[in-house]
Specification:
- The complex is a heterodimer of chains A (158) and B (788).
- Chain A is an alpha+beta fold.
- Chain A has two domains: 77 residues, Ubiquitin-like (UB roll); 69 residues, [2Fe-2S]-binding domain (DNA polymerase, domain 1, Orthogonal Bundle), CATH 1.10.150.120.
- Chain A has five helices and five strands; from the N terminus they run ββαβββαααα.
- In chain A, helix 2 packs antiparallel against helix 5.
- With 788 residues, chain B is an alpha+beta fold.
- Chain B has three domains: 155 residues, Aldehyde oxidase/xanthine dehydrogenase, molybdopterin binding domain (Aldehyde Oxidoreductase, domain 4), CATH 3.30.365; 195 residues, Alpha-Beta Complex (Aldehyde Oxidoreductase, domain 3); 324 residues, Aldehyde oxidase/xanthine dehydrogenase, molybdopterin binding domain (Aldehyde Oxidoreductase, domain 4, 2-Layer Sandwich).
- Chain B has a seven-stranded mixed sheet with strand order 3-5-1-12-9-10-11, sandwiched between helices. A five-stranded mixed sheet of chain B has the order 7-15-14-13-8, sandwiched between helices. Chain B has a four-stranded mixed sheet with strand order 18-26-27-28, sandwiched between helices.
- Chain B is globular, with a radius of gyration of 27 Å.
- The relative contact order of chain B is 0.13.
- The chains are: A alpha+beta (158), B alpha+beta (788).
- Chains A and B meet through helix 2, helix 3, helix 4 and helix 5 of A and helix 1 and helix 17 of B.
Amino acid sequence: MSVTIAMSVNGRPVEATVDARTLLVEFLRNDLALTGTHVGCDTGQCGACTVLLDGKAVKSCTILAAQAAGAKVTTIEGLARDGTLHPMQAAFRDCHGLQCGFCTPGMVMSALDLVARHPAPDERTVREGLDGNLCRCTGYHNIVKAVQQGAAAMRQGG
Amino acid sequence: MGANETNVIGRAVRRKEDARFLTGTGQFTDDVNPPRHTHAYFLRSPHAHARIVAIDASRAKAAPGVVAVFTGADLEGVNGLPCGWLITGTDGKPMNEPPHPVLAKGKVRHVGDPVALVVAESPHQAKDAAELVDVDYEILPAVVSCVEALKPGAPQVHDEAPGNRCYTWSLGDKAAVDAAFAKAAHVSKLDIVNNRLIPNAIEPRAAVASYNAAEDAYTLYVANQNPHVERLLMTAFVLGLPEHKVRVIAPDVGGGFGSKIYLYAEETAMVWAARRVGRPIKWAAERSESFVSDAHGRDHVTHAELAMDAEGRFLAMRVHTTANMGAYLSTFASCIPTILYATLLAGQYTTPAIHCEVTAAFTNTVPVDAYRGAGRPEATFVVERLVHQAGVDMKLSQDEIRRRNFIRTFPYQTPVALTYDTGGYDACLDEAMRLADVAGFAARKAEAAKRGRLRGLGYASYIEACGLAPSNIAGALGARAGLFEAGEVRVHPTGSVTVFTGSHSHGQGHETTFAQVVASRLGIPVENVDVVHGDTGRVPFGMGTYGSRSLAVGGTAIVKALDKIVAKGRKIAAHLLEAAETDIEFADGKFTVAGTDRSKTFGEVALTAYVPHNYPLDKLEPGLNETAFYDPTNFTFPAGTHICEVEIDPETGVVEVVSFAACDDFGNIINPMIVEGQVHGGLAQGIGQALLESCVYDAESGQLLSGSFMDYALPRADDVPSFKVGTKVTPCTHNPLGAKGCGEAGAIGAPAAMMNAVHDALAAVGVKSLDMPASPHRVWKAIRAARA
């Protein structure tokens, strides 16, 4: 069964007819070629596929593309502006908050959701807030630093 | 730190690779979508051990969208997957090497063993069709424990390996050890289980295989750590294809930790099938598949004893280990519990006599192979748990028992075959104790006790052998591959440089570190240096990345190529400056006539090499492009001390890591930011092993019980603390960079430090012995048992 869906992805209107069982992450990766959103597990545990849906972090492997109809979706590809990294992206680079880069898009999107709720998070808040995103490379040490630095830069309107 | 600086050794240069990962423009294997590609799904055994009575794929072949279905019977002329290291047993016989079919033939031997390859137009269609492959299994009894597998009457995994024995192997002077134990004042003893782990790089394995009929050539994109080795093994040993007709590309790879070193069945079957199907085939593992098909790590059962004199000086060590190989020998499985384990049992200590016997067993489990540290974490765990116990038994502080036995004279020949070139173990211990504030521990312990909590401090003074080498000695020990590395430095006419390295980066930041090495040597900005890796079509050759070898071996190959570039540049400059070649000095990017201000920049020399109008064409070829192969003369020996502080709630059994300090000696450091990141990641994996991670099989059915992230506890951000890390430097004496390697140290030291801290804390309530992982349930049970 096919369904026709329309939504805004990174500020751009998109419309497509897809198999009804298509997950949002499959739609983003396969239909829109937005391959920055990654798939790291099949149980909704790893968070590599995290995107913002109307500003809130969701794991795009846990919802159908059809459920995102009418919504505003932001992926990792939608953050940098005119070649300038978003302050959170810049903080991850500056703090060495990424190694292999596979969990990174989901980690950055989760961080943005976290900072929206906690503009000046302490270490404990960051660690608990990133509980839904697995990283196997960094030991989280520099990710925590990056989220705090990114939050500070966002507070200063950077 | 600006990327345009040239004197960048030892600087925290921000990574060149980050921009693409942070903007979603990296290219991982699953992002590769060739035109008209099909999708693969592997039907896997649901049983741990069964005879395949019959397979009927006719319903699957007729399913919607199905392009082809292949089973083991279809792979005629395809050999089994090879093992890269031949171990010779104490009986003088070669290890038992049963066949490892690409797709199961006759029997399945572990849950997840691939049985059929289904190729279809979409991933969903391939998966749906796989359910229609009818396999008639006759279920057989299974064995999952390596200890049980060696008992008489255990289910036989392979006819070719009677008693499930792969080999029994030993190292060291047994008579000397027995004599030392006979005169010992005290013997400390431990029984140790090193728990089986599942690597779980966050990018699941993936492959895209295609065949080009016009060129009669194949291209394989694969999430892999060593594409040249993958190609060599696949073409020469399994498929019988000409090596030069297969291009293997490992693009951006999302972590490896060892699990992506190996030649796996999936990509091998796909390359074979790509020509038959006539269209590209793509596969990305679902995480559930990763759990039952990526090589696992560790899984040792050990009894160890340490003999001491009355002052706590080590006289001898005796170790017996049983190691689980899983159902088949993975690519390097056989050398992990032998060559990379028993040789490390001297640790940082002057123990004069050591004997180790290892028996490796086949079981109905996923094959076991190198996982971050590969043998050295297992050795460190044995040594450092024993040393901790020795300190307790001899009533010596944990730093004193270590200091009494540290090696302080180098080079040092251990009784287990290695020669340590250099080290400084006291310095790392002192600094780790400072970082951990050991002086304040008693007060913290007392304060915790007032709250009803148990505090403990644990030490691990580890050593590892990295940059596995040299090839001729490794060959004599059974290695079936060389252990060198290759590097090519291509200077472009305008003076920018592309470096081609046989090392592979899957998170380690080689594109930055190697660029720093090149930029510093040539006196050019880092931004003018690009590093290419992971493509047999572009890189001359390579052994890839494992065993913390990339900088010490791969970096040195690049340095050797740079030496040739500078030597040729000197000749060109001598011609341009009308001076003797011996009078030309090269520094800061300039070739200068010694004692004068007459010079040519590196860029001028590069341009001259490619526009050779004023050039000694009769004596020198144009161009500036050099390749070097480097085969190390010895291992490198990173070492350090890790100190962990835990607090345990005796009512819940929850262990909190309150502090973790690590001081490591990695030799000279190119990029401290990257090195610290490597340590952090390793520590989290080591803490994961000690507190959270455990691969659990049902002993009867052989089913994997910890088969998802809901059952297998990967460390999350709130499971680990921020780390206190420091370094001390004794440069490696036998490579020009003085580098030793840093990728595995965290995972090597942390489990022992963690468990020593847990045992230190639990000593107060009488708990003597606890196996990893120290989960709340286990700790709670141990406390209750000790109190009872």
